[in-house]
Write a structure and sequence with these properties.
Layout: H1 2-24, E1 29-36, E2 40-48, E3 55-62, E4 67-71, E5 75-76, E6 81-89, E7 95-105, E8 112-122
Parallel strand pairs: 1-8
Antiparallel strand pairs: 2-6, 3-5, 3-7, 4-6, 7-8
Length: 124
């Protein structure tokens, strides 16, 4: 019984640590780490058109009014990239925060690209 418990415990540690590594290396996720409450922070994501067709950006939506985004163009030729600047205003937040930015495209196979920003908001 102890042996089964040990194997189970090791496998849980293995799979959970892999998930953390995967999320840290995800180009669609950015962790601001610790942010003082009331401060605004920014990050620029890069979106590349890896298809062989022109990609149209229909719009960009955020999950909250505390998060804003800017893009520098609406059409991407094959292999072309664009920058998406995302800002987060931590006013009124505390603790762990996770917000989303949705990039709506005309790609039938991938119509919505989700970007994630995270922060731990701390009091000043």
């Amino acid at each position: 019984m102890k042996r089964i418990f040990l194997i189970f415990s090791i496998s849980i540690l293995f799979f959970s640590s892999g998930h953390c590594l995967e999320e840290k290396n995800d180009p669609n996720t950015w962790d601001f780490s610790r942010v003082e409450e009331g401060k605004s922070v920014k990050h620029t994501f890069t979106l590349k058109n890896d298809t062989d067709k022109t990609l149209a950006i229909k719009g960009v939506d955020t999950s909250c009014g505390c998060t804003a985004s800017k893009i520098n163009k609406r059409t991407l030729k094959p292999k072309e990239s664009l920058e998406i600047e995302v800002s987060f205003n931590s006013k009124g937040y505390s603790g762990e925060v996770k917000q989303f930015v949705y990039v709506n495209t005309d790609d039938i196979d991938n119509p919505v690209i989700r970007l994630i920003i995270k922060a731990e908001v701390v009091k000043q």
